[in-house]
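hey can u check if this looks right to u? its 170 residues, i copy pasted from the old doc so theres a chance i mangled smth
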Amino acid sequence: MNMYSVYHETYILLATIYGGILIGFIYDLYKVFRGIFNPKKLATNLQDIFFWTIITIVAFYVLIFSNKGDLRFYNFLGFVIGVGIYYYLLSKKIIQALTFLVRLLKQFIRDLWKLITYPFHVGICLISVPYSYCKMRSKPVYYKAKRIIKLPSRVVADCKKSMIHYFKKK
């Protein structure tokens, strides 16, 4: 009975260490996510609440399934040891890998978007090239027509200026 108890207590300690490693990983996910999206204050508060809810669920899950929810000092010690192990041994490599995967995913999504929108760009190009050519060819005619259409209003404006200038001199 005593030997079973030692094995069981060792299992509980190792389970809480594993839970600490899992909590450290979740924290790194959270850091990478916040680094990518750079949220505002309200979003940060909501993300913090979500993060602590997930951490609480993980801790309760580990405690319930390893020792039926009994809290002992070494449970907390196991979580702290697990987070410490994760931080000192795995955190830098995991953050580098997650950052690489996120960049790869962003590039994939960007390339996929370009692939999806390419036919639309080709269609716009097929429409805009003749339009640009026609616009270039008709631009001189357009400006000449515009000057001719505005001629009466320009004549009236010039006459008003001349009359004002003429009456000011005398």
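Residues 2-117 form one domain.
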